């Protein structure tokens, strides 16, 4: 068999139910494919024998009549999510031997649903970056072009799913870390409303901004994983695009795009118009001002107490000072070492940042109500994947720009507001690289947003696995 026979969790579930294949047979296919493509750097932890053993147990449970939703489904975890039996390195030197004694809450839910933990996925060190150029755990490479980045910080998850090494993965997203690699690797990703998914057992950046989220090949899989991770079983009901109102946000979202991204996303909008979607220009006044005031101050203030609590609860024996002192990547060290040396973000700056976040949330809620749109639609990233490089800059519109703010330009505001966001594969740019189309919805509209995404997915070009 080939992974292309069952390209999604949903198709694999149906095949297992019909006895077309077994979990053990599918696991062997993934093991062989993974062995062939280790140079992609998607995994930092992969144990073929453990995956085989889990698959055999799943087949026995199925034969005994069990019907839990993910029985026998291999799922990869970003390496900041605790799973007993696997180190949680968070991509950093000091935690390479960090072996949790308890599963993260999301891991518990996956196991209870019958999922097989296939391994731990590579990531940008401590999740503070967008390239996944990691000197500690290795470079992850985009399977569509191995000289290009996969995005980050959940870059390994994007690589594994896009390359067909696993059907789905769980990443984390603080400013775009699920949606950016999903877009650059040509897959789908969901950032849930903050608070819907438990963060227990996940190495944090910021409790106000962080959330785990699924990465897969279609919205049907995202919806299934969202139900498992959150317990929200509200149906993702089919909807018609005829008369559906979507907002085209003003400002940064559609400006100064890379030529290939503009071509693909404008074509996607035309497909939506032909399907009957009503596209509405939406003004987001003072969004940039509130977003800038909220984003980094909240993340950098909360990193110190939140990561300290994680280190203490994990019994890693590593202090925050040691963790930061041993950072292996200069971009991350250059941010966090001065932060710790200075004593962190002042309390009054943090308080002002939280106020700015409330104003940002109001901008979004007012816009959704005023323009009566189901979601905002925009390019997930303003550019396609750029070259693998240790430099923290990227060529964009003829100039060198800082990589991190350039790639998260469109995903960051919704992240800071804590609202749900989806990215879908929109097509391939002339350079042969994937382009993502993003949807942001009102807070707590996650299941409705997935319905909207599923309807849009049906009219977009059908995505494929990377041609390895």
TrEMBL record:
<keyword id="KW-0378">Hydrolase</keyword>
<dbReference type="InterPro" id="IPR000120">
    <property type="entry name" value="Amidase"/>
</dbReference>
<dbReference type="InterPro" id="IPR036928">
    <property type="entry name" value="AS_sf"/>
</dbReference>
<dbReference type="InterPro" id="IPR020556">
    <property type="entry name" value="Amidase_CS"/>
</dbReference>
<protein>
    <submittedName>
        <fullName>Indoleacetamide hydrolase</fullName>
    </submittedName>
</protein>
<feature type="domain" description="Amidase">
    <location>
        <begin position="27"/>
        <end position="450"/>
    </location>
</feature>
<dbReference type="Pfam" id="PF01425">
    <property type="entry name" value="Amidase"/>
</dbReference>
<dbReference type="InterPro" id="IPR023631">
    <property type="entry name" value="Amidase_dom"/>
</dbReference>
<dbReference type="GO" id="GO:0016787">
    <property type="term" value="F:hydrolase activity"/>
</dbReference>
């Amino acid at each position: 068999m080939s992974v292309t026979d069952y390209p999604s969790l949903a198709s694999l579930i149906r095949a297992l139910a019909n006895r077309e294949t077994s979990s053990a047979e599918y696991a062997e296919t993934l093991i062989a494919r993974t062995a062939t493509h280790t140079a992609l750097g998607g995994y930092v932890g992969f144990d073929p024998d453990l995956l085989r053993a889990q698959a055999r147990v799943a087949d026995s449970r199925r034969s005994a009549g069990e019907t839990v939703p993910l029985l026998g489904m291999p799922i990869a975890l970003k390496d900041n999510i605790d799973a007993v039996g696997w180190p949680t390195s968070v991509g950093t030197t000091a935690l390479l031997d960090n072996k949790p004694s308890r599963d993260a809450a999301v891991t518990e839910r996956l196991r209870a649903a019958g999922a097989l933990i296939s391994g731990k996925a590579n990531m940008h060190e401590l999740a503070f970056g967008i390239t996944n150029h990691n000197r500690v755990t290795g470079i992850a490479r985009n399977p569509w072009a191995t000289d290009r980045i996969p995005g980050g910080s959940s870059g390994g998850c994007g690589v594994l799913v896009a390359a067909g090494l696993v059907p789905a993965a769980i990443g984390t997203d603080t400013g775009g870390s699920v949606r950016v690699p999903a877009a650059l690797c040509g897959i789908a990703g969901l950032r849930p409303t903050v608070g819907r998914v438990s963060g227990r057992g996940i190495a944090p950046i910021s409790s106000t901004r962080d959330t785990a989220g699924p990465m897969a090949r279609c919205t049907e899989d995202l919806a299934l994983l969202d139900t498992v991770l959150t317990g929200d079983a509200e149906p993702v009901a089919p909807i018609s695009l005829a008369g559906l109102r979507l907002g085209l946000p003003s400002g940064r979202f559609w400006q100064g795009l890379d030529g290939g991204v503009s071509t693909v996303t404008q074509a996607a909008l035309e497909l939506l118009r032909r399907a009957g979607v009503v596209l509405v220009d939406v003004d987001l006044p003072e969004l940039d001002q509130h977003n800038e005031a909220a984003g980094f101050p909240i993340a950098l203030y909360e990193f110190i107490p939140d990561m300290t609590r994680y280190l203490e609860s994990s019994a890693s024996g590593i202090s925050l000072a040691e963790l930061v002192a041993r950072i292996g990547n200069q971009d991350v060290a250059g941010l966090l070492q001065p932060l710790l040396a200075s004593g962190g973000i002042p309390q009054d700056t943090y308080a002002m940042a939280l106020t700015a976040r409330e104003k940002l949330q109001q901008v979004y809620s007012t816009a959704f109500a005023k323009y009566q749109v189901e979601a905002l639609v925009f390019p997930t990233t303003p550019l396609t994947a750029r070259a693998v490089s240790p430099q923290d800059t990227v060529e964009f519109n003829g100039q060198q720009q800082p990589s991190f703010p350039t790639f998260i330009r469109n995903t960051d505001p919704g992240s800071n507001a804590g609202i749900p966001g989806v990215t879908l594969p929109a097509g391939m740019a002339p350079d042969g690289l994937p382009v993502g189309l993003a949807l942001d919805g009102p807070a707590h509209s996650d299941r409705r947003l997935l319905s909207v995404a599923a309807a849009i997915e049906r009219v977009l070009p059908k995505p494929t696995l990377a041609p390895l």
